[in-house]
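Need residues for this backbone.
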């Protein structure tokens, strides 16, 4: 009975921690841009030089994890609850540590080896079976085996400690204080689902307990760290205010000055008071002339109220400064009218925006608009491509492979690979 009760707790625990895997993605160029700048600083003092992709997921719990494709997932809750940009940097460094130390492939390899064991494995294996979509392995581990493999448990804990050490050493190399990561650990501890577990079950955790993490920080931190970047912090504060407002996190007392006004402007728009929202945003724009992301927020709000034409003009201002902001491009394209009679302009509109499929491969509104444009410019293979995506779900892969063999358009071949 004791084992059965623990198994129930184990399952519930990993259902909680696996939930972000199925959460929706949040697209925000400003946040991705800051994360990229933070990661560049981390990599500048470490040895890893391969590309790391980032995705923001909609999850209120402060969380971060990596997968085998070197994609780092950050939750909206992490951005809301991080005390400052340094604590966010430390969390990102921890996850990059997992990547640089090849922890993910090692875990996957070890999980595969568990198929040869005749004992109940550790919780990391259960999580791994979910990630790898191997329910048979998970059921076998949970119900057909009877003991814990302590050696593998310790290996997984060692990985977490190694990643913690990597993060602290990164802070030291960047001459940044560890105080903010201590504050974040206090926040995380107060919110952690581990508080719901008894001490016996905590032994099965692959993550070091909070006491151990504090010890790692205390033993490895350096004194007189004073390289705090106020510009980074100001940008982070605006991002935090935006996420707090859009998520409905009602703790505006944590914000001050322009960031609080920003929060209130977004809140006003969400509550239906467009006039008050625009008034606050206009004040902020006049005070922060170099912050074009406030202009982008204004465009987002105008678009949400149906002022498409006005929104597009503001998005264009953002694009001039940030030409790689594909989310602004997406909103312009989706809401821009086109003429059926001007073949040249329609062709230009089509090919200037076809790359948006790489960002939004399953967005039906985007696919439908591109499909309609492809019919106007009479591009046979592109028409076939969109018809397959829209109307051939059952044999999509087969149809796309056939089209891939027919077409000589390299851009189309590239996009077909996204779906096969």
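Answer:
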């Amino acid at each position: 009975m004791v084992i059965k009760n623990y198994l129930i707790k184990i399952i519930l625990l990993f259902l909680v921690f696996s939930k972000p895997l199925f959460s929706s993605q949040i697209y925000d160029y400003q946040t991705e841009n800051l994360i990229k700048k933070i990661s560049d600083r981390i990599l500048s003092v470490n040895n890893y030089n391969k590309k790391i992709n980032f995705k923001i997921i909609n999850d209120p719990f402060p969380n971060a994890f990596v997968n085998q494709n070197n994609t780092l997932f950050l939750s909206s809750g992490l951005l809301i609850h991080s005390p400052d940009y340094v604590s966010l940097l430390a969390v990102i460094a921890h996850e990059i540590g997992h990547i640089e130390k090849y922890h993910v492939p090692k875990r996957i390899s070890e999980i595969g080896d568990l198929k040869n064991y005749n004992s109940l494995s550790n919780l990391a294996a259960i999580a791994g079976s979910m990630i790898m979509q191997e329910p048979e392995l998970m059921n076998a581990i949970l119900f057909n085996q009877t003991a814990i493999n302590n050696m593998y448990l310790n290996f997984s804990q060692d990985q977490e400690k190694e990643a913690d050490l990597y993060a602290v050493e990164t802070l030291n190399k960047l001459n940044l204080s560890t105080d903010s990561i201590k504050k974040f650990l206090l926040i995380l501890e107060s919110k952690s689902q581990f508080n719901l577990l008894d001490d016996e079950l905590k032994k099965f955790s692959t993550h070091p307990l909070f006491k151990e993490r504090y010890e790692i920080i205390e033993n490895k931190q350096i004194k007189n760290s004073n390289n705090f970047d106020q510009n980074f912090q100001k940008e982070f504060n605006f991002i935090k205010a935006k996420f707090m407002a859009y998520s409905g996190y009602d703790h505006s007392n944590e914000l001050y000055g322009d960031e609080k006004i920003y929060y209130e402007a977004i809140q006003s728009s969400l509550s239906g008071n467009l006039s008050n929202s625009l008034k606050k945003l206009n004040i902020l724009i006049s005070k922060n002339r170099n912050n074009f992301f406030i202009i982008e927020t204004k465009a987002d709000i105008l678009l949400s109220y149906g002022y498409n034409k006005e929104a597009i003009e503001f998005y264009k201002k953002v694009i001039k400064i940030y030409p790689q902001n594909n989310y602004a491009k997406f909103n312009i394209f989706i809401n821009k009218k086109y003429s059926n009679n001007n073949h040249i302009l329609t062709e230009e509109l089509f090919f200037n925006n076809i790359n948006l499929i790489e960002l939004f491969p399953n967005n039906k509104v985007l696919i439908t608009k591109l499909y309609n444009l492809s019919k106007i410019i009479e591009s046979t293979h592109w028409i076939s491509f969109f018809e397959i995506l829209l109307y051939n779900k059952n044999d999509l892969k087969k149809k796309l492979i056939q089209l891939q063999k027919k077409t000589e358009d390299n851009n189309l071949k590239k996009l077909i690979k996204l779906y096969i």
